[in-house]
Amino acid sequence: MLLRYFYDEKLAHASYLVGCQATGEAIVIDPARDVTPYLKTAQAEGLTVVAAAETHIHADFVSGAREMGAKHKATLYVSGEGGPDWSYAYVSEENGHQLKHCLVKDGDRFNIGRLEFEVLHTPGHTPESVSFLLTDRGGGADRPIGIFTGDFVFVGDVGRPDLLEKAVGLAGTAMEGARLMFQSLQRFKRLDEYVQIWPAHGAGSACGKALGAVPSSTVGYEKRFNWALSFNDEPSFVDALLAGQPEPPTYFPRMKQVNREGPALLADLPAPEWIEGTVVAVVGSLVQRGATVIDTRTSPAFAAGHVEGTINLPYNRSFTSWAGWLVDDERPLYVMGEADQLPGIVRDMRAIGIDRIAGTIEASAMWSGAQSGVAGLQSYAEVTPADIAGKVSEGEVVVVDVRSGAEWEEGRIPGARHILLGTLPQRIREVPADKPVLVQCRTGMRSAIAVGILQAHGITNIMNLQGGIVRWREEGLPIAK
Which residues does the annotation mark as catalytic? Predict the structure, then answer.
């Protein structure tokens, strides 16, 4: 048996290639939209990918299952549990032809070569959630070696049950999901303790609240150290599971719909236009025509000078998540970045369904020759807590805190207003324009993004707090709770 682990740090998404070396067949579990890495790895190992399986309809990234089935003729094993509202609409018809697929239910078994997969219905995170228990029959084993848990059990955590209610608006589903999760976990606890756990996410995912950074675990370890498996009564578990869940990203409902109905194939998406030019005016004209222009340079570079109306999303580990929260691709969308990064930027945006990218702009060429005095350039000030504390205490500036709700509850700058960064574009009117605005987060990174958004909406008397509330605390300045 061959097992390969694939991890997208920007989405905290784990997927797996599992192969039977005796027969040369392989399956991909919870594939990402770009399936090229699986195919290349399989080919290098002398395997052919013949199948793809999904643990549930994902809400945080575009699945590659349709890509595998339609383009690469793989058989799809997807959940038939949960009822018609949670079924895969696209699998029954593909351009007039059925995709090769199997709607699996609890207790079903299927084989990839000599590898046997048993389906366990594990609702809680979603009604249709299933897990795949793997036994290597080719190695002579008669007991499972591991389980692909999807968003059911993570290392140190379990899947959140409130997404359907908070993100999709289905009232009452959070409580019901938490109860189902408790029942699913009782079954999980009965598995052999040596069974390995291969989840679909790691630390940083919004599909749980306390995911560990270790890629895998075992049933026995989780029974001992996973907080969610320590409860023996359902009411206490439900209360604990629902408490403190982070705000779901605004793009989750769209991802759920895309993955249920079937995403567009990557080959069918038009290539973004390469926008040429060496003057900043090119970007300014795009903004004036109503386009959204994302500047992926670092926050300090953006603060020093940027085209009026552009939005700064630095291309780092948080890029994909904040793009999902903040990018409106209903308007013409252009992305500016370094030439060697642009293919990755486009790939990462398409990973969360941002497909309507009209053009890409090479940043170095665009900024060559630009001077600080060029018309249309903006900048913003970055201030230290010592610089601004006096004006904050005197009420001379408006403080906008863009951290999460949980961070806000832990302590905040006195007088601050709380607007979660991901919701800022819809709440611009809540930011007063009659005083200077100080934007603040934990360390100054999210607040830098917020400054760009506010500037693009016409709020220009604005500052970013360097070091955020962490530095504010370190300098002994007051904190309200």
Answer: 441
